Structure formats: C-alpha cells, structure tokens
Amino acid sequence: MSGQMDHANLFDDARSRLEEVFDAIGVQGDARERLRQPSLSLQVSVPVRMDDGSLRVFPGWRVQYNNILGPAKGGIRFHPEVSQEEVTTLSFWMAVKCAVVDLPYGGGKGGVKVDPKQLSKLELERLARGYVRAIADIMGPDRDIPAPDVNTNATVMGWMADEFDHLARGKVPAAITGKPPALGGSLGRVAATGRGALHVLDLWAARERRKPEETTVAIQGFGNAAYHFARLAHERGYRIVAVSDSKGAIYSREGLDPDPIMEQKTHNQRLHDMVYCDDSVCIADDVEKLERDELLTLEVDVLALAALENQIHEDNVDQVKARAVLEIANGPVTSQADERLEKRGVPVLPDVLANTGGVIVSYYEWVQNRNGERWAEENVNARLAERLERQSQLIFERAEREEISYRKAAYRQGIERIAEAIQLRGNCQDSE
Ligand code: NAD
Q1: Which of 122, 125, 223, 404 has the fewest CB neighbours in a 10 Å radius?
Q2: How confident is the model at residue 1 (pLDDT cuts 50, 70, 90)?
Q3: Alpha carbon of 306 to ligand 1 centroid (Å)
Q4: Which residues bind substrate (predicted)?
C-alpha cells in the first residue's frame, strides 16, 4: 500500500484513533455508538452560471459530525480533491477539536469539489452563494455555523453571509464566522489560527526550556494559517529557515522574514484585485530554492505542517529529521506515521490542539454577533491566549501523568467531555 492515503482510507484512519481512545478511557454503550459516525451528511449539486453563459454543476457536501456540545461548527473547503470522505473526516476532527478546547460546539465541515483558481471572481461569488442556498436549511447560529478553510477566505465568507441574510430576510451575522470585520467579523480572526499555533509552540517550548532564538522552524504551506504563524513566530524570535507552497520551497540558513516574501508573492494579486494568489514563495529573491517536498526532510528543530492532510505518511516518515512536529493543518500526519514518530521519541503537537486558534476566535465572533458587541483586537487575542494556555497545560500534564503522546492526551480530553454529555442527556434520546 502506498504510504500516502487517498481519501477512501482517511475516515477509517481517523476512526482507528477513536477506537483506541474508547478503550483507553472506558467509553461504552451509547456514547461509543453515537461517536462512530456523523449525525447528518448532506450532498448537494451547485449549479453555477459561467461568464460565457454555460452552466456548470459542482458537487458539494456539508457534514455535521454531531451537535452534542452545541451547534456544528467548521469550515468550508473549495478544492479539486474534496470528497465526502474527506469532509466527513474533517467534521470528525472538528468535533474532537472543539471539545479539546472546551467550546460549546459540535463538529461540522463543508466542501465543494472545484478548482476555484480557474473561476473568475464573479463565478466564484455565484458558487459561494449557490452553496449557501443548497445547505441553508441545515445552517443557522443554533444549528451549524460555517467558517473559512482551504481556498475560502473572508471575502468568500462575506458573500456567503450576505446570501444567508437574503434567505433569512434579516441580519443573521452569527450564522457564519470568519467574515470581514465590516460585515461583523471579529478582529483578530484572520491571524487566529497562526497565532494559536504559536501559543501552543511557545507553551511547549517553555516546558522544554527551549528558547525561540535557538529554535529553527520549517513551515509547509504559506496560506492563511501558515503565513500568520510564520510572521508571528519570526517576530517572537524563532528562526524560520524554510517555507513552501504547492509550487515549491525556499530555504535560508540565516532565517527568512515572511513579510517581504508575502509582499512579493501577492504583488500581482493586489494589482489585479484577485481573490487568490497565483505566484509562489519561489518568487522571493536571494534565497535557495528547494524541491517542494525536500522541506519535509530538513534537519530542523520544528517542522510545522500547515498545508493539507496526509503529508507525512508511511513512505516518507523515516526521512523526517525534525526534532518536533507542529500540526497546523488538519490531519497532516497519518496514524501509522504518527506511531513511528512516537516510537522515535519525536513529539507531535497535534492538530486538535495546535490549530484551534481559528475556531476559538470564530467562537468569539459568534458571541460578539449574538450580543451585538465589537471587541478590541487586544481583548480577542488575550482571551485566545488565556484559553489556549489553560487547555494546553491540561493536555501537557495529562500526557506526562499517563505517559502518553500529546495527541492521545488531547483525544482523551475531548472524547471524555463529549461522552459525558451523551451520558448526562439520559437513555431515551432518539435524536439530537
Ligand atoms: P490556504 O488555502 O490559505 O493555504 C494552503 C496552503 O498550502 C497554500 O499556501 C498552498 O499553496 C499550500 N499547499 C498546498 N499543497 C501543498 C503541498 N503539497 N506542499 C506545500 N504546500 C502546499 O489554507 P489555510 O486556511 O491556511 O489552511 C491550511 C490548513 O490549515 C488546512 O489543513 C486547514 O484545514 C487548516 N486550518 C485552517 C484554519 C483557518 O482558520 N484557515 C483553521 C484550522 C485549520
């Protein structure tokens, strides 16, 4: 079998971790059954009138893994490889993640199988609006609250939020998070995933008595999550020696400054008012160019994975020379690769903790929208730091006490909270 899984195995792989946790913490009966599959899975077809007058129909999905702790919550992905299997798995990870950081949410995820970079801006807007019309019946501030993910950003969320308002015949800002601030988005949301990942790295580094300026970092990806992480980590003193994107990678032993790289990479995008950036990090001057996946095998202190799932798998895990792995993307390390890293003593700061900054600030956006409030950015960032510190320390301490990996500790923490809620709801519930 190839080490890099296709989506057909993705959910099985995720579920195998779940079964281990059930056994480890003694989850039985109702909770075990309920947590094994999603509670709602909707497949839609989104017709889009193209600029040349033709009609194209794009397949899409919205999956609500559960809404045991609160409404389903999770992003929407536009990508040519999106599948129902992938969306289901991502919704499962969202359910675990929200519980790990104690948010009153279940898990959800959405996706459309499309190469959005092939669409004009107006075609993209029609697709975003069409997708919302297709899933509107299962959305809402108390039911399911979408947010951005790969290839969907604040601009796309703004169109989606506007469409939902039209359908609802009123303003429902809490129905979607990650909106532009002018449409009720929270200050601090754009950088929140990267900022959160940096907090988790900082907290771990402090426990290990490791100073930022003595720590080299390679980052896979240079999109929303990766760029803000890179920018803030650089400010904090970490040495970012390499970054990559889908087209290639760059390296500098002395360290890279992410801001001028982003300036250069997005020059054309700004000039032509494009939603996506066509250029690569490889456009940067005075840096060494690497093959894209060479970045994964660099000898660095921290390998930060911030692109897509399944990047470290059975076939390449033995080439990973990093001393620690930070999962900013969802599911970037397969379970087999994870076991190998654990055996080699390479700590992995897991996605269900390390990338929660985005959903935490999405939660703050939802709270602000529901209460008609606007919080200052410092206030948002301070609350994010405080929550992550509290929840991360619980996981670090649990991992130490039970002599298990950070991932196992985080899963135990999250699944215990969900299982307790299922039990407390009684024995006669037949629906959520
Ligand atoms: P994005 O679309 O902004 O960026 C994705 C980046 O990955 C791009 O730079 C792209 O070029 C790069 N990439 C794709 N394939 C690659 C490859 N094979 N090698 C190197 N780089 C590659 O997406 P994003 O929002 O930054 O999301 C990235 C990851 O973080 C996803 O797994 C997403 O689910 C996760 N995540 C994002 C958020 C968020 O708030 N945006 C929150 C939590 C988790």
Answers
A1: 122
A2: very low
A3: 5
A4: 73, 97, 362
Q: What is the model's pTM?
A: 0.95
> Domain segments of the chain: what residues?
7-183, 192-354
CA–centroid distance, 150 to ligand 1, in Å, is 5
Asked if residue 280 has its Cβ within 6 Å of ligand 1, the reply is: no
Fold for domain 192-354?
Rossmann fold (3.40.50)
Backbone angles phi, psi at 324, to 5 degrees: -155, 155
User: CA quadruple 179, 182, 185, 188: dihedral positive or negative?
Assistant: positive
Predicted pLDDT at 162: 98
Residues 422, 430: Cα–Cα separation, whole Å: 12
Could you tell me if the CB of 327 is within 6 A of ligand 1? no
CB distance 329 to ligand 1 below 6 Å: yes
Strands 107-113 and 144-148: unpaired
Q: Highest mean pLDDT: which of 9-18, 268-277, 320-329?
A: 320-329
Long-range contacts of 258-262 (CB under 8 A, 24+ apart): 258/222, 258/227, 258/230, 258/231, 258/234, 259/231, 259/234, 260/284, 261/222, 262/222, 262/227, 262/231
Q: Can 109 be counted among the known catalytic residues?
A: yes
Q: Is 307 in the pocket of ligand 1 (CB under 6 A)?
A: yes
CATH of domain 7-183: 3.40.50.10860
Confirm whether residue 39 is marked as ligand binding: no
